[in-house]
Structure formats: C-alpha cells, structure tokens
Amino acid sequence: MVLWSSAFLSTSVIWLIVGCILYVFKPELRTWLFLIFPPIDVSTILAAGLHTFLFCILIISTLHSVIVYGLLDMYIHLTLAIIMVPVSEFIWSHKYPFPPTSKTTSTIAFALAYLGWYFHRHIQQSLGEKEPLRRSRFLLASVALFLLLLPTWRVQDFIHYHPIDMLIYDAQICHNKYLQSVGNTTSLEETVARYQKRYNRLPPPGFDLWFEYAKKRSAFIVDEFDQIHQDLEPFWKIPPHVLRKDTWIMVSNPWNEISGISIRQGQASVLPNVLPTHKWMLDGVAVLINKFAEHLPDMDLAFNLNDEARVAVPYGDLEAPHQKNQPPVETAPNYWYPVAKDPIGDTVFKDMSFRNTFREFGSVGCPPSSYARSHPHISSRSHICHECTAPHSLGQFLANWTGAADICHQPDLAYLNGFYLSPAAFKTSHQLMPVFSQSKPHGYNDILYPSAWNYMDKVKYSPSADTGKPGEPDFKPGYPDVPFKDKQNVLFWRGATSEGVSSGDHSWRGMTRQRLVHMANNLTTSAHDYITILLPHFDDYKKYKYVTLPGTSPQTLGLKTDIAIVDRIARCGGIGLYDCTDQEKEFGLVGPSNFQAHWQYKFLFDLDGAGFSGRFLAFLESHSLPFKTALFREWYDSRIRAWHHFVPQDPRLHGVWSTLAYFAGVNGTLYGDKIWWKAHEAEAERIAEQGRDWVNKAIRKEDMEIYFFRLLLEWARITNDSRDKLGFTA
C-alpha cells in the first residue's frame, strides 16, 4: 500500500512540476493542459488516461527496483539502457555511408559502457554485496556486445559510384517517359480522349478553341496539365454560387490585399479598387488574359497581391465530402456580383505576419499520422534532421524534387525558411477560398497561375556584346553569355534578406539566404561548423567516401564561391533590438551589380525570397548551370526535371559543397596532402544546355498563355451553375 501511495504521489508531483513549467514557458499549451483544447473526444481522454497509467507503472517499477536492487544499481542499468538502446537502434538501421559514422567511436563507447558495468560488478563481488559472476554470464554479455557492434564494422564507409551519376541517369529516363505522356498530337479527338482517361471527366466547353490556340503556338504539351487538376479539384465540393460570392467578398475588402480582374464580353480589365502598389501586376495579368479573353465567358478572378501564399485548409476539412453547402441567394443564373463601391469589412483572412506559421498554416494540411504532425518537435535545430531528408534523398543529394516539396515528413522546415519562421505579409485563411497566386508551398490550396513578373520580363535574360573599342570614350563593356567552358568556375549568388522578417528573435539565422551566405563565407574550424563532403577515396579514385572536415576546407580544396548580400540588411530590427546590426557584422555587404553579369559564371544559385524566385527562368535560358533550392512551387514545376534541366539542392544546404566538388572539380590540399579531382564539366554543360533548350520549348510566354487559357476554361465551368452538365465532346 505504501508503495502504491508513493507511486501516485510521485506521479502527481512530477506532473505538477511539468505542468507549471509548460504553463510559464509555453503559453500556447495552456488550453491543452486544462483539457479544453478542441475537440475533446473519447480518443483524447483514453490517450491521456493511458499515458497516466503507464507513467504510474514506470514509477512503481522504479521504486521496486530501488528497494530490491539498490539505488546505484538501478541508476547504472538505467543509464546503460538510455545510452545503448538508441545507439544500437541507429547502428543496426544505418546501412549507408551517409551520414558518416565513426566505427572507432561506436566501439569505444560500447566498450567503455561494458567495462564500467563489469568493474562495478567486480567491486560489488569484492565487498561481498553480490555473488561472483558466472563465467557463462560473462561470456553471454561479451557475445551480446560483439553482436551489437557487428553492424558497425560490416557497413562500408565508401561507395563504388557517385550518386550524382545515378541521379543524372535516372532523370534522363524519367524525362523521356514524361515526353511520352505530354500529348504532342495534332488530333483534337485524341486529345479529348486522353483528357477523359486522365481526369475522368469531359473537357470544359471551349476546349476546341483552346486546342486550336495551343497548336497555332506550337505547344509541345497538350495533355499534361495535372497542376490545374490538383489546384481546382477541391473547389468541385463548393457550390458555384458560393465561389462567385467568395470572390466578391475577397476583392471588395482592400485589407485582404487581394484585387480582382473582371472578364466581360471577351475583355479582361482590372477592377478599380486595386492597390496602387500592385497595379502593374494586375495590368500584366490582364494583358496575358486578353490574348485569349475573346473565347472566355464572363467571370471575376481574385488575385493575391502578396508574395506569400494565402489558403491552407486543414487536412480533415479538405477531406470532408461537402463544404459551404449554404442555399443560393436569389440572383440570375451564373451571376457575378459587382464590386462594392465602399469597402466591406467582412474577411475570412487572419494576419499571421511576423510569427512562426508552420504548425497552424503549414503542417495543418498533412495527415495526422505524418511525421510533421506526429513529431512536431525536432531534437536539435543545430543538427540536420536525417529522418526528415531520407525520404527524398540519395545519401547527401536531393533525389526527389517533388518529394522535397512535401513538408509532411519535414518538421524541421519550421525553422529553416523565412516563410515559416516570420513571413513579412501573411494574411491567411483555413477556409477554402478561390485565390489565384503566383506560387505556393506544399499544403496550400491557392490556385497557381503564370506570374506577370515573368510574362512582363521584370527580370530578363539579355546578354550583350561590348560596344565601341576599349580605351575610347564610347566604349561600353557588354555582358556576353560565353560558352560554358569559358565561364568562371565559380558558384555565384547575389540577393537581399527578403525571405522573412527578423525582429529581435534572431530568426534570420534559420533563413535559407542567410544560411547560404554564412556557409559560403563565414565557416570556421570550430566543431559546429564542420562540413561533410563526398570525395574520391584516398586509396582508390574509383570509390567515394564522405569525409567530415573543418568549415574552412572548401577554400583549401579549391572550391570557389562568390555569394553575398547586396547593399543593406532588410526586414529586420525593432526598437532596442539588434538583428540588423548583428547581420551587418556577420555578412560582408556588397554593392549592386548588373543582372546580366551573372552569365560570366558557370554555376548560378537560385533561392526563394518571400515567395517564388523571379530569376530562375532567366537562369535556365542562359548557358550557365542553375543550382536551385525552393520551398515555393510554380505552375511549370511538373514540366522541369531536376538533374536534367537544373541541379536541385536541399533547403538544408548540406549537399552544396559535395555537388560543387563534383561539377567544378577539386584542386587543393586535404590534411596537408595534394588532392585533385577532375571536374565533371561535360555533365554540367549538358544539363545547362538541356535546361536552356527545354525552357525555350515548354516554358515560353506562349506556354504561359496556353496554361492560363486552359485554367480559366476549367474555372469557368466550376463556377457555372450547370457545371455537372457541361463538357466538350469532339
């Protein structure tokens, strides 16, 4: 009875201490502590009860062990279990050379733990506290130690092929298969049949006009528009009159930072209440739409003016069979509401700027069983979460570009991108709303469309030759895009700290742009700055081995970068705060340069800002090789192939040095010895030229028009009261 009383009393005290700590330091968990976090269902109560029961059993077992075996014995055995169980699990499941592990360290750690236990037992025997240990038990313990360590010595720490060679080969095969599915055909009947097979419904009305429009513009892709299907499919659950009303509500409130375009009688025009700062953007969209507006029915469209995405519907709500099934308002069929003369105050959006949004508006779109929701707290922000990278990686290298966008297995992204850490302009909703956006991360439900930024050539690939003669007054240096072999063997990036806002909490340290600049310029020989690079094996250059080196090693290996923040630190600070000055001290700022100067470098790094990168298509058009990491995805993402058109990089950036070493080559010293590794220049140039050829074939301005035309035909059907009866038949 005393034992049980002590157990329950100890449990209560421990829970009280934990609860007080959480109440003080985790305000967001206060409602959960008092069991008022909605929804409270039977499963929640059962889980809490089971948790409490198991905790009581733990306390009882602990007290029993203390009484029977003594406090010191229990402590030693518990320490051994805490150390050896997770380590054993890791070495038995770790079958690959990455992440690299030390055989010697693992062996010494286990041996010391074993010897500690052995000498403790020997001392107890000498003092007469324990009976002598039988030889059979000693041998059994030794065999167990040997078996535990066996996988450590069986795993090879080198590989016989370079992963990038395999990734390039696989990308070629996948792209060839993709080309067979895009439907480059001259037959309308065949295209309609493929549409029905692919999407399980008839094409929308006007499909024949779209097909003719696409063929006149030499469209290479006429079948594969899966992004449109994925974006629009959830809206089939919402009645058309509700979609039209939602559009009116959004564009009638300027606070939403959503403006509209109205299409009437085959002409697109910007609604008069557009925010002046973004009128250029809507004007560009209207120019794009008017290329084919004569073939469209009347409709209104709501465009997101911010870089950040807007709509994140929780997983359970999106899977629900019906949403917003309110009765229709008495209006004419297919009625579009005129914009209110005076702004309305109604809004479904919530301002979440300047705060971490990952759980509430990121992983909320993932299944409850996903890693991001079942393991929301990562063990360390200063170490790579290998469980997060494994599903989309081959060793250190990003192998699945689409999978890398899926945040549902990557809870660590909450602290690795400015959009999740502290977005600058983030007005968002859990309610499914018809918002058209230029880009979005995984889990968001915005409708993607081709950006006016790209269509209006805000950033343009425009190399130029020198004019005049050197030394003469009229001489002007040009910016030629020279052949790949003549470019500087350098990885180049210039940009601003525009990814997110750091207003005193040092969140800039997790943002991708700042991490890239730090990695390129500020690594030291300290242990926390060590890097891992895949290099040829010291004894056999046909093998490769991951080696962990001081942060200054890229320079000694001859790897060259020119990566810097331009002009000033943006989006930082606050009264009495030091995030601006801290970044100024950390990063060496440089002056602005002409965008066309990029073409002198072999390797160009492309990163997101507050939203998508506006440079990537220009990079693809050049003879340089783009390295790209991206959280935001655009309308054309399914058309481009990583390792075939560009070189993908994980947002953790842990594979950058190994990738650069492969393409740029190594010529320097390692541990004081000379090391040389031939650059894979032919592979780099081939990927660069494949990307250049493809962007001029499948991501032209004409392709933006074709995509948007088809998107709006589909949208016109979804917002039509008779949509279930509408369809085109050849």
From TrEMBL:
The chain crosses the membrane at residues 6-25, 32-60, 66-87, 138-155. Residues 397-715 form the Glycosyl transferase CAP10 domain. Keywords: Membrane, Transferase, Transmembrane, Transmembrane helix. SMART domains: CAP10. One of its GO terms (molecular function) is transferase activity. Belongs to the glycosyltransferase 90 family. This is Glycosyl transferase CAP10 domain-containing protein. It comes from Exophiala mesophila (Black yeast-like fungus).
